[in-house]
Amino acid sequence: MLAVSGNSRRQRAARDRMAAAAREYAGFGWPSFPGAHPPVGGDRACSCDRIGCPDPAAHPVSAAWAHQASVDSAVIGRWWSERPLANIILPTGRVFDVFDVPAAAGAAALDRIERDGLPVGPVASFGGDRHLFFVATRGAPVDEDEWWSCHLDCSPEDVAETPGMRWHCRDSYVVAPPSVLPSGREVTWLRPPSAGPLPDPLRLLEVLADSCDAAG
Questions:
Q1: pLDDT of 144 over the 60 cut
Q2: Residue 104 and residue 20: Cα distance in Å, rounded?
Q3: Number of domains into which the chain is organized
Q4: Origin, by domain of life (predicted)?
Q5: Share of the chain above pLDDT 70, in %
Q6: CA–CA dist 54, 62 (Å, integer)
Q7: Quick one: pLDDT at residue 155?
Q8: What would the 3-class secondary structure string for the chain be?
Q9: Checking phi first, is residue 200 left (phi over 0); if not, alpha (psi -120 to 50) or beta?
Q10: How far apart (Å, rounded) are the C-alpha atoms in residues 122 and 89?
């Protein structure tokens, strides 16, 4: 009984932590959706039912994430009541885009950004492996002729094929703090979000590209 009670308390604390973070993101207008997570016990790295999951604890729980992601507090509360350990998925290309770079390149870029006094928005660490730079979005215009893409664009299906710099825009997502990854790693904020405007992606693109080239 004590073990069950302790497990229940841990799940409740995790739910409250994740739901509170998702509601905080909603306050910035950032929709969220539940993600897979490392299971409690066992030898699997992901809570999903795929054997050999290619992206353990770092993907949405449903293929409907793009349509169902929400800023509604009641919806967020229900989701994390049903899935108390779920990680947080943030769709990109709506309120923000994200530059996703190797950690060494991200650290070098932050040093240069600070040294040169360049604008920078929220920055997260993905388990110590990569840095996520949140920038203003290019959006998803109704007129497709207004859309411009680049070779850095990535989607959930091809992200593993892009080991250097990635640009998460529409139809993609990132895993947000305080999500928990396999082996006890976490997604954490290096520079937490604020109410200020997000930087123009083109202002940071050159710095991040140079840092990736130097670290590569």
A1: no
A2: 30
A3: 1
A4: Bacteria
A5: 86
A6: 15
A7: 75
A8: CHHHHHHHHHHHHHHHHHHHHHHHHHHCCCCEEEECCCCCCCCCCCCCCCCCCCCCCCCECCCCHHHHCECCHHHHHHHHHHCCCCEEEEECCCCEEEEEEEHHHHHHHHHHHHHHCCCCCCEEEECCCEEEEEEECCCCCCCHHHCCCCCCEECCCCHHHCCCCEEECCCCEEEECCCECHHHCEEEEEECCCCCCCCCHHHHHHHHHHHHHHHC
A9: beta
A10: 16
Residues 4/9/11/14 CA torsion (nearest 10 deg): -160
Two structure tokens written together for 140: 């998803």
Domain assignment of residue 48, given as a range: 3-214
Cα–Cα distances (Å) from 198 to 36, 99, 127, 139, in that order, read: 28, 12, 23, 13
Query: Which token pair is 13?
Result: 């604390």
Amino acid letter, residue 67? H
**Global pTM value:** 0.89
Task: Look up tokens 């299971």; give the residue.
Answer: 39
Number of neighbours of residue 120 by Cβ within 10 angstroms: 19
First to last CA, the chain: 53
Amino acid 4: pLDDT: 47
Q: How far is CA 168 from CA 100, 135, 155, 174, 201, in A?
A: 7, 10, 7, 8, 11
Rounded to the nearest angstrom, the gap between the alpha carbon of residue 191 and the centroid of all alpha carbons in its chain is 14
Residue 17, both tokens: 């932590």
> Does a cis peptide bond (omega within 30 degrees of 0) precede residue 163?
no
Number of residues written out for the chain: 216
